[in-house]
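pls design
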């Protein structure tokens, strides 16, 4: 596909104090085999050189533009503010976080799938998260998956392939349909919007690693891992959209399973004596999901943990003393309880 025939892609790069990584991010865009794109850098009141670095690239390449927020925004509102600036002539839209980057064929491969199947609203792919390949589970090839099917797999099989903002490509018309595009009350608004869009659109997938998500201390990902906001996000998606994809019996079964997983997780953390912010967060999310926080259920789950510990003391001690790491969904060393907007 020559550049004249290539549809325009609007690439949004939200940035907050990313001077250490933003060059690598922008360089990955310049290295794309697909060339018809614009890059909108949303500088969220950075106190380092993030904005200046972006402007250096903008001075050399007219496809790059930098916008400075007048006031600091939290993460999801910043994403929405940036998305409002995409070109009215763009056919596709992609977020690339300033501390992430994409592989050279990323745009080309994703647009190829979207152009082949007009019913596709979102395109995903495998991605690297640190050293780990993520969002696997679909058969090869899986270029087109009906939207209803991909969400049923999410709820019934826990098959999550929506990845992160960096790993997805959207049709721009869908971004323009919603303002705000992302639910600003939901830290995992990226998966929520996917569940909403799949009711009317299909999902495309490239069976190839096309993006890199950085794992580092103090990041929004670190906050999510430490607090395990993911479990709250999956519950929110289920109670908000599950009934649109599942039978009544399937929905009840999924909700029961998700609640058992949630209270098992909370009981594990009761043993670890987590701080008040942890408990306030999860109580709030259970309340927002309209299932409420059940203290009796928590104590029952905790009792089950203690019983298991008495029966298997060695195994329990090993798990309890296990050094936290990125493979443990509950803990991450170096966590800071003040996640900044990207």
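designed seq:
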């Amino acid at each position: 596909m020559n550049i004249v025939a290539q549809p325009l892609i609007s690439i949004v790069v939200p940035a907050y104090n990313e001077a250490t990584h933003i060059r690598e991010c922008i360089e990955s865009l310049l290295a794309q085999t697909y060339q018809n794109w614009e890059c909108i850098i949303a500088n969220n009141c950075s106190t380092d050189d993030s904005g200046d670095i972006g402007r250096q690239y903008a001075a050399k390449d007219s496809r790059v533009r930098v916008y400075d927020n007048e006031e600091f925004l939290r993460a999801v509102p910043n994403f929405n503010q940036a998305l409002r600036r995409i070109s009215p002539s763009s056919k596709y839209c992609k977020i690339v976080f300033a501390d992430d980057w994409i592989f050279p064929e990323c745009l080309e491969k994703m647009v190829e799938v979207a152009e082949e199947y007009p019913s596709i609203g979102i395109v995903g792919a495998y991605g690297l998260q640190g050293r780990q390949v993520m969002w696997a589970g679909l058969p090869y090839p899986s270029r087109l998956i009906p939207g209803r099917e991909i969400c049923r797999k999410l709820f019934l099989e826990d098959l999550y392939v929506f990845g992160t903002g960096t790993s997805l490509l959207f049709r721009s018309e869908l971004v323009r349909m919603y303002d705000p595009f992302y639910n600003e009350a939901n830290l995992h608004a990226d998966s929520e919007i996917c569940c909403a869009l799949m009711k009317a659109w299909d999902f495309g997938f490239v069976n190839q690693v096309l993006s890199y998500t950085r794992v580092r201390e103090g990041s929004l990902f670190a906050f999510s891992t430490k607090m395990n906001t993911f479990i709250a996000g999956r519950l929110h998606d289920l109670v908000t959209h599950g009934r649109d994809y599942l039978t009544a019996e399937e929905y009840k079964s999924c909700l029961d399973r998700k609640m058992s997983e949630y209270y098992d997780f909370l009981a594990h953390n009761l043993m670890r004596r987590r701080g008040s912010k942890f408990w306030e967060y999860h109580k709030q999310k259970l309340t927002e999901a309209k299932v409420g926080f059940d203290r009796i259920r928590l104590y029952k789950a905790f009792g089950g943990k203690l019983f298991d510990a008495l029966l298997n003391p060695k195994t329990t001690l090993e798990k309890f003393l296990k050094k936290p790491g990125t493979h443990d969904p509950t803990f991450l060393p170096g966590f800071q309880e003040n996640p900044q907007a990207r």
